[in-house]
Amino acid sequence: MASEPEDGKLQGQNWTLREPCKHCNCSDGRIETRNGQNTVRCSGCDRHLYNAPKTETGEIRRTVQSGRHVIAGEVLRDILLRAGGRCEICGVIPTIRNAGHILSRADGYAAGLTDRDIDSIDNVALMCEECNLLIGSKSLHPKVYAVLLAKWRRGQHSSEGMLDSVRNLFKVNPGGPKGTAK
Q: Is the pTM here over 0.70, yes or no?
């Protein structure tokens, strides 16, 4: 097995199977990345055998912590106060609070913004870990950002009615799992 490979660097690498292939009894395989997931295929019969978790392949597991960029303490304090301790996207009171960018770092740099602009209180929102990971490295949808701005301008905690606004905006089914459409 490889030790501490970079994400996506295992493509085509030979791999020792957990157990011999049930179809051809071969014990050698290879890794192929499909939709961001490491899949293990048999070298003998080329059948998909299983998905290899990053913990098995030695890759770094993606978490909010693994992609962390340090945001100034006063900005963190100000967003916490503005949000009233709630996720500014879904309104829950998170056990783990995250500061998420509204306009992604990449989009901010592409627009000619500086780190100071990108990490300002106007571009950072308090988020639960689930919302922050869902947004990932993308920018927040402009319609959701518009709802956030309206709440901030009225002096409301952005989570007040935010979930209903987002549900209405994207026609999300309030009775179904989070993120499911009608």
A: no
